[in-house]
Amino acid sequence: MSLSIRNQIAGTVTAVTIGEAMATVKVRLDGGQDITAAITADAVKDLGLTTGSAVKALVKATEVALATGPVEGLSIRNRIPGTVVDVATGPAMASVKVDVNGGGLTAAITADAVEALGLVAGTSVVALIKATEVSLQSA
């Protein structure tokens, strides 16, 4: 199945916590980073997710924010360090490709943000992704 979602990162489920309607699923990405997805309890059941399940974490590029330093006092659980490898800037928006320990993430952010943060190839960043914006696909 082809998807328009740019960020499709392979990993393995390390923990599943199921609540009344929602669940959190912790995934160790192939590059060694950890990411948390908040999905419905029904989705966990439908996908058959358990510890050790192979999955792909799916994140739209518009849901990836970037910071140029450590971020404290923020509810966003997924904070993945990386290095900018490419910036394609248009009049309003930009596509920023980030290497995250051998894997890749793409962030779609405003051109103003690229300028304000001074993002160029080689810039160290932290990719920020809300757990509710991470979808999972069974592999």
Description:
The chain is mostly beta strands and 139 residues long. It is built from two helices and ten strands, in the order βββαβββββαββ. The chain has helices spanning 41-47, 111-117; strands at 7-18, 22-29, 34-40, 54-59, 65-67, 78-89, 93-100, 103-110, 124-129, 135-138. The strands form two sheets. A five-stranded antiparallel β-sheet has the order 3-2-1-4-10. A five-stranded antiparallel β-sheet has the order 5-9-6-7-8.
Summarize this, please?
By secondary structure, the protein is mainly beta. 10% of the residues lie in helices and 53% in strands.
Question: Could you tell me the mean pLDDT?
Answer: 95
- Secondary-structure-derived class: mainly beta
Low-confidence stretches: none
The oligomeric state is single chain
Helix content: 10-25%
Number of DSSP strands?
Answer: 10
Return Rg in Å. Answer: 15 Å
- The proportion of strand residues reads over 45%
Helix-strand sequence? EEEHEEEEEHEE
Number of helices: 2
Could you describe the largest sheet, including whether it forms a barrel?
5 strands, antiparallel
Tell me the strand order in the biggest sheet: 3-2-1-4-10
Shape: elongated
The first-to-last residue Cα distance is: 12 Å
Fold blueprint:
Layout: E1 7-18, E2 22-29, E3 34-40, H1 41-47, E4 54-59, E5 65-67, E6 78-89, E7 93-100, E8 103-110, H2 111-117, E9 124-129, E10 135-138
